[in-house]
Amino acid sequence: MKYRSASRITELIPIHTTLKPNSLGSESWCCAFSPDESYFAWSSGNTVVTLMPWSFCKQTLPGLGKHEVEDCFGCNTISINTCITVRSMAFGLSTLNYSKCSPHPFWCRFSSSKDLILATGHSNGRIRVWDVFTGKLILELLDHKDMVSCLAFNPTGNLVLTSTSFDGTLKIWDLHDDGNMFQTLKMTNKSIYSCCWSPDAKSLVSVGMCKLVYVWDMKTFKVKFKLQGHCHDVVACAFSPDGCLIVSASWDTRVILWDSYSGQMLKIFGHLQPSPHLIFASGDNGTWIRDVSFSSDGAHIATVADDGYLRFWDIASEENPEAIATIENSLCCKYAPSGHILAVGSRSGSVTFWNAPACIKSLAYLSRICIRKAVSAENVPQLAIPKCLVKYLLYEELE
Predict the structure, then answer these.
(1) CA-to-CA distance for 226 and 349, rounded, in angstroms?
(2) What are the phi and psi torsion angles at 221 (to 5°)?
(3) pLDDT per position as a tens digit, 327-344
(4) Side-chain-side CA neighbours of residue 277 (13 Å)
(5) Residue pair 285/253 in contact by the 8 Å Cβ criterion
(6) Strands (E), 154-251
(7) Whole-model pTM?
(8) CA torsion angle 237 166 27 83 (round to 10)
(9) Three-state secondary-structure class, residue 263
């Protein structure tokens, strides 16, 4: 079958590196866009994190080749040498005014008016928090006993940070309370690879060295669902922008789309055709999926895998990619908040930017996104609308 080719914009190469490309320590394990899309950061190998003002870069990127990047962005980037391998990162944006919430004044490391920070997770179990504008270290969080594999900030802007680690724990930190670690969760006592918050911050998904996808109630800190369907370690997860869908990626060559309310499996996106037998999929199959990212319109997901392909999928279409591109040794991928660009990090320490497939969605689709952001799944059947629309709002057409 012939697929549409994805369009590459350009490639950014590390500004400071003493390692050969694809050598141990040169990897770009993670990349991130700030929630307001003002900054982009990636672990550019050699323990270095590179920060770029994205509002400036996105206008200049299309006219660049990879060899021109250093000269163009050298004076506009901040390179932070963390001295420790960086395995995860996340931007945090404070939007809550805590001084109005409390009758008593209190001291805090962060101002309560739109502070933008970057948290980095390291191979030695430490989490460091940096000032995005100066590159200075603000805070260090110590409690994990092994590599910090994923970081995710609560999307409501209260600077509550969730971290996962190879020590088998998931920890929750309050950075407005000087980084106080107030909750520890465990899955199976094995390594945890990734986590993500729901847009309303009521749920959290975590995945790791097991075949299950854990969905947590973040009010009670209890497990709501254990989603079964994968036959190998689950390595990445993401929520749709309206919080109705969960996507999980596994080394079994498959990405599964779930209903976040019922826990029902909706779709399977296979990366090998025909689908491999269980004994092959659960082993070293050559198509381990490394990461998955949801687009801001909720209509597309992107995946990178060890078979050397970047794939863009339309979640409503047949189980074939909408567009693909060849990219060797990819490790991570992230959509920009606007949804127009996808960033992909690789073992060489570089990051490439791709034009994400886009299409004009129907009014019904856009209305569903808006309604489901305001109306929970349990309240949808109570709406005074035809049954066919109730089914549509519950994404039942994907079943």
Answers:
(1) 35
(2) 60, 35
(3) 989 999 999 998 889 999
(4) 2
(5) yes
(6) 160-165, 169-174, 180-186, 192-197, 203-208, 212-217, 222-228, 234-239, 245-250
(7) 0.89
(8) 130
(9) coil
